[in-house]
What does this fold into?
Amino acid sequence: MTDYPIIRTVGLTGILVTFAGAMSEEANKASVAFRAAVDAQKWPEVSETAMSLVSVFLITDLVAHSAADIIQRLEALLATRDWLAAPLPEGRTLWHIPTVYGTDLAPQLEEAATAAGVDPDEAIRQISGTRVRVLTIGFAPGQPYLGELPENWNVPRQKDLTLNVPAGALVVAIRQLAIFTNPTPTGWRHIGQTAFRTFDQNGPAPFALTPGDEILFPQVSRTEMEKIRSAHPDGFGAADREAIG
Amino acid sequence: MSGQMNILTAGPAMSLQDGGRAGYFASGLTPGGAADTLALHEGAALLGQSPDNAAIEMVGMGGTFEASQDTIIALTGARMTAQIDGTPVVWNASHILAAGAKLAIGGAQAGTYGYLHVAGGFDVPENMGARGTHLKAGIGALLSAGESLPLGSGGNGRAGYRLPDADRLNGGTVRVVESAQTREFSDETIRRFGETAFRRDTRGNRQGVRMDQDGEGFFANDGLSIVSEVIVTGDIQVTGDGAPYVLMCESQTTGGYPRIATVIPCDLPRVAQAPAGAPLQFEFISLEEAIALEAKARAALKALPGLVEPLVRDPSDIADLLSYQLVSGAVSALADPFDT
It folds into this structure.
């Protein structure tokens, strides 16, 4: 039995602080909070921080800086509070991202609803009514993994991949949602379509989302989506955002 | 108006590459950049300029190029056939490419990633702080015939200089440290991994290189239930079929497959350059040894300019010519050199 949190070096690239051996709401929130705390330290040796589902990663040049020294500081910071009970930090964003559920734009809504044991209307009610949090960003630039959905959405990925799900697709599996950055083959089911671009290399801020941000996916009609696409070429797909603490 | 390099024909995977763009890991973007970072430094040393300049990376096959003005170039990385207007030119060296002359770079004879550098660098606009192409992320794109790249000004490189031949082009031993998940594998599996003679598989690109071998696969104790965790360049990921993949500069930033080890940065060019079928073996070393080796490799990068030497030594450059014994070293073309 491993005692968490554990601190490990990662290659010569950095140091990883892990709060749990599996995804959990507490460990994910602890990672968001601890990452913010590490950022606030402004340690000159740390060039970047990032987080995965249950870990905080500090990028630091282990050739130039002593891992032991940074680990000691991390241990001291860990000891300052119970991170599993830490509140989410301030300065996060709540996004409202208009979404078409089902139709030919997102053909797997019915199938996903069946897997979750509800009818499509109830599926839309549940998904659009759940405020999900960005658990981590990865796989593709800016691509968020969002959760957690109610327990009935603990549906496995499909065995056979859907060959080409478009960018902006809202997909579901294992109590999580994702918005795809690029067209991709996937085992996740395509239940909604947004006009939201998670990564715009030409924009002033190329990445829209950061772990800890929260998202609602209000339902719009297909016609409204067409209007949004033509009226909002900026890539955010008419998403609204508000600051949350 | 400044000059340009015109691409007349292009191999299947040519792209502009530099040191990559750090700073976006949290947003899911690996730095990318040249697959063989040492080759980038060698080109910079040959041209007497900063390694921050972008070069054209050519995978397996080069292309044909023509500059609109006299341009000093350098060729590094995978050894490829190269001719200027039909005359073969030496690899790992700098040359003059006269305005309108045709530089034809052919297939790789050793290694995988070849580089074409120009004095002054390529003056293309930066995107997110770098000029390198990140194919996986869709930043930039492969170069194709008909494109022209603007040449930077201020280059003061000299033609006719060389560096010692690269010794990393045909596989060999690669040093690794334990990754965050090495201990998810049994001691026996880790030992077998270190003793296995791998071959570089034909499947490999800027995202990762698959390792082939004849024995059974390498499986973690609880391989399929490991929580998705950060990936760094050089991580050796073992997928469902037990085959290790060395993850390269355009890998994803997180993944759920266990990593059995991590290649130390200074040995990654050897993995990148290994052509399909080349032998590769992984040797576990301690973090302390890895840090010492990497520090040494960085010092060697800084010392590269000191290794640059003229392609042909001009007798007038040799100050004490008269003290050389110019005759007694001559050998007979007919003598058996092993007959002493």
The radius of gyration of chain A is 19 Å.
